[in-house]
Amino acid sequence: MLMTSSEFFRNLPPKQCTKCGSHLDEMHESYVQECDSCQTEGIWAKPN
Ligand SMILES: [Zn+2]
């Protein structure tokens, strides 16, 4: 049986930040996996 897209998304667990575990706002784009504060930290934390 095919699920509708709304049923599919309803079954997904709440999105969480991969760094601090905070719940992400539903408005975030699907590819975003970090909360705003962690993303901001990443901007300033240069890899080298
Ligand atoms: Zn975070």
TrEMBL record:
InterPro entries: YhfH-like. This is YhfH family protein.
